[in-house]
Every structure is written in C-alpha cells, then in structure tokens.
Write a structure and sequence with these properties.
alpha+beta
Length: about 240
C-alpha cells in the first residue's frame, strides 16, 4: 500500500514523505536559490542536485520480523554507489522540471531513507517529486518511479516471474531488477529513464518496462490526489480563519 504526507517539514521550500509498504523516504527541496559557487551556475536554466542520505543505521524490515543484520544488503542500489543514485534521481527530476524558468539557480533535493524494506530507489524518486510539487516548482509533467523485480522461474525455459515494488526479502532472491521512471505529460506513459541491475533477457526488460509504465499511472494519480488534498485543507483553513 502507498501512503504520503506533504509539507512534513517547515524549513525547506517543499517537503514530502512517501511510503511503499514498510519502506519510507523523506524528501526536502531547497530553492530555487543562487548557487554557492559560480561553477554550479547555468545562465540558461536551473541545476538540479540531489543529496542521498542512507545511513548504516537505517532499519530494514525482514520477512521474519525485526531487523536483519546480515544475509544481504538493505542498500537500494543493488551495488550502485550513492553518487550513482544521486545522478539517476537528479537526471530523472531535471528531465521534468522547467529549468529555463529558473536561470542561474540551484534546486537542491535532499533524500533521507527512513526505513528500507525494498523498492527504496523508486520510493525515493516519488518522495522527491512530491517535494518538488509542494515547493511549487514548475514541471512539464509528473514523473513516477516503479521497481520491477525479475525472479527466475523454477521450470526450464519458462517465463520469468516479475514482481512490482518488491520487499527486501524478495529482492534478496532476485536475479535482476529494473527501476523505471515514467511521466504523465502529453506523451502518455512516456518512459523517462530506467536503471537496471543484474543480468536479464530483453524480453524480461520489455515486460518490466510495460508493467512499470502501467503501475506508474496509478502512482501519478495517487500523488496528485495527495497534493490536492493538502491544497484543499489549506484553503479550508484559510477561509475559516
């Protein structure tokens, strides 16, 4: 199940908490603001930067209850470094932000993994998107991320078993995984970017993209509903005061 909360923090320009199952990620947006260093300035548009915080103490919920100390990693990138994850999330967000609206500025997104129980990368992207919406950043469309897991079938020559938004226990038994980011702009269901981990067949990759694209539409609708509910509550509070 999905759950979300908008404007969870008071100091950032925008913030949001997004949960998928037991995984929970908090995102905060600072800016648009003038860059601290001239080298980070782009006269033609904003620069989107991402800071990923995933401490060693982040709780990972195991299938048998409680936290797991060994037997696999709770790291969301299946071996990718945090810098690589920052680049992936930053590129996905920048592709939907109207950068030309904010020349010579920086939009910084801080992602904090609160609890990790699978599908952390996709949850982080969705939390960051909601934080951008809360900050009022102009966007070409609303992106949404979904993780698809590939489990080898037991029988020889059978089709692979695909799981959307898997848990950490399922990720531990996976042969490969694909995180897909889609957008709801005029090109409905357009795939913005993907990142793959492990070895998988082309047919499995295409099936993952197709399944994640369908699921992404539901995620976008959920995020829009959460933001609309927040705006409605604020409007009611304004008129009642």
């Amino acid at each position: 199940p999905l759950s979300a909360e908008v404007s969870t923090l008071s100091r950032p320009d925008g913030s949001a908490s997004f949960s998928a199952g037991h995984t929970r990620v908090l995102a905060a947006v600072y800016g648009p603001a003038a860059p601290r260093a001239a080298s980070r300035e782009d006269p033609n548009g904003a620069v989107v930067t991402v800071v990923w915080k995933h401490g060693a103490g982040t709780a990972r919920k195991g299938g048998g209850g409680g936290e797991k100390g060994g037997g696999g990693s709770a790291h969301p990138g299946y071996g990718a470094t945090e810098r690589e994850l920052e680049r992936f999330v930053g590129d996905a967000l920048a592709s939907c932000v109207r950068l030309e609206r904010y020349p010579r500025s920086v939009i910084e997104v801080v992602v904090q993994v609160i609890r990790a129980d699978g599908s952390v990368l996709g949850t982080a992207v969705n939390a960051a998107v909601m934080a951008l919406l809360d900050a009022g950043i102009e966007m070409n469309g609303v992106p949404a991320a979904t993780t698809c897991l590939v489990l080898r079938s037991g029988g020889g020559g059978g089709d692979d078993d695909l799981r959307l938004d898997p848990t950490s226990e399922e990720e531990g038994a996976a042969e490969a995984a694909v995180s897909v980011v889609v957008t709801d702009n005029v090109n409905e269901g357009q795939v913005l970017t993907t990142i793959t981990f492990g070895n998988l067949k082309v047919a499995s990759l295409l099936s993952c993209v197709e399944g994640a694209t369908r699921a992404g539409k539901a995620v976008v609708a959920f995020m829009r509903l959460a933001v609309e509910q927040k705006v409605t509550r604020e409007a009611q509070t304004l008129w009642s005061s």
